[in-house]
Design goal:
Elements lengths: L1 E7 L10 H9 L50 E7 L1 E3 L1 E2 L14 E6 L2 E3 L7 E3 L4 E7 L2 E3 L23 E4 L4 E7 L4 E3 L17 E13 L14 E9 H5 L6 E13 L79 E4 L2 E4 L6 E2 L5
Parallel strand pairs: 2-5, 3-6, 4-7, 5-8, 6-9, 7-10, 8-11, 9-12, 10-16, 11-17, 12-18
Antiparallel strand pairs: 1-2, 13-15, 14-15
């Protein structure tokens, strides 16, 4: 991180202070007149171009009739902060403004380097009250790419929303301008893709089982044998001993057959593949594809082994994440692709400069 402060001034650190030099430095003209009333410190936060601005460095300059030339010692006209290098979650309001952010001195925040976010928070943020501030962007401000549905930290099955690039929520602000240079890249993060749908459950199957209790002589305890628990008599027959054994006998032999049916469940469907990550600061090469679904599970097997519940269907493939400032793709699951991040979000600001699909990706108007 590198943020450098410069100023138009300080003026008159030593030596003579003349009205002509005050005119040149504050009225910014080399000819014409300047009156004492024009040199009073202006504290109106709605004045977009005060001659003598309100600033911490100008606190000695009178706002009334007791104006003195000596009060302009070490005074300033403008205030500048320049960001270079790489920063994440860059807080404009916490920079070294010397308590001038909410005063009417004209200020510039130059974003010349790279600013991004590896979290859902905005890449750059201004939440402090500010007046007469221009955020001049020639570098990059890249929002976070939303995570795919079902991945760690993301919703399920919907994809996560992409992060905003620049967020401006400056309560009571006046004259905040975002100036976009032709080299700028202010991009909202792409939304995450939706998780694939869970595979269909396999069809259930009915198992048919048969048990034969055998031939038993009537009157013998074995002859009273009944079907096992869960089985019912489905077949009976009887014969005389003389027929079965070939000897004279009037005692009957009984044959009992027992049946039952059971249901074996079909296998569960495979898990849907996770959604792909949206394009963002932490995924700059492009949105990621969704993952493949897992294979369905085999159904329960009948005791006889000849039938079983059907295998579950395979899980669906997850959807791809969205490009910068674009919604994540959806599947036929119950959720949706993640919403895109905005290039610029918030209120109380205006946007000007080179505005096209190269410099801005995502919504940017208040």
């Amino acid at each position: 991180m590198a943020a450098t402060v410069t100023k138009a001034g300080p003026y008159f650190a030593s030596g003579e202070i003349s009205f002509s030099s005050l005119r040149t430095n504050f009225k910014e003209t080399s000819s014409g007149s300047i009156s004492a009333s024009e040199l009073r410190r202006n504290t109106s936060v709605t004045d977009k171009n005060p001659i003598v601005p309100d600033a911490t460095e100008n606190a000695s300059i009178s706002t009334g009739n007791n104006l003195a030339i000596s009060q302009f010692r070490n005074s300033i006209k403008y205030y500048y902060i320049t960001q270079t290098g790489t920063d994440t979650n860059f807080n404009i309001g916490s920079q070294s403004w010397n308590s001038n952010l909410n005063k009417n001195i004209l200020k510039w925040m130059y974003i010349n380097g790279a600013v991004g976010s590896s979290t859902p928070s905005a890449a750059a943020i201004l939440s402090s009250t500010a007046h007469n501030l221009t955020i001049d962007v020639s570098g990059s401000i890249l929002g976070f790419g939303g995570r795919g549905g079902g991945t760690a930290g993301a919703p399920d099955p919907s994809g996560e929303s992409g992060g905003n690039g620049l967020s401006i929520n400056s309560s009571g602000a006046n004259n905040i301008v975002v100036f976009v240079r032709n080299t700028a890249a202010i991009y909202g993060g792409g939304g995450g893709g939706e998780r694939g749908k869970t595979g269909a459950k396999g069809a259930d199957r009915t198992c048919e089982e048969f048990q034969n209790t055998g031939w038993h002589c009537q009157g013998n305890s074995a002859g009273q044998e009944k079907c096992a628990s869960g089985f019912t008599v489905c077949r009976t027959a009887w014969r005389y001993c003389c027929i079965r054994q070939g000897r004279g006998c009037a005692v009957a032999w009984w044959y009992v057959g027992c049946c039952r049916t059971t249901t074996k469940l079909g296998g569960p469907g495979g898990t849907g593949g996770v959604g792909g990550k949206g394009r963002g600061y932490d995924n700059q090469s492009g949105p990621s594809s969704g993952g493949s679904g897992s294979e369905g599970t085999a159904g329960e097997i009948c005791p006889s082994g000849n039938r079983s519940g059907e295998k579950g269907g395979n899980g669906g493939t997850g959807a791809a994440g969205g490009d910068y400032g674009q919604v994540g793709e959806s599947t036929d699951n119950t959720g949706s692709g993640g919403a895109p991040g905005r290039a610029i979000s918030g209120s109380n600001y205006s946007v000007t400069g080179t505005l096209n699909t190269s410099t801005i990706k995502g919504l940017y108007n208040p």
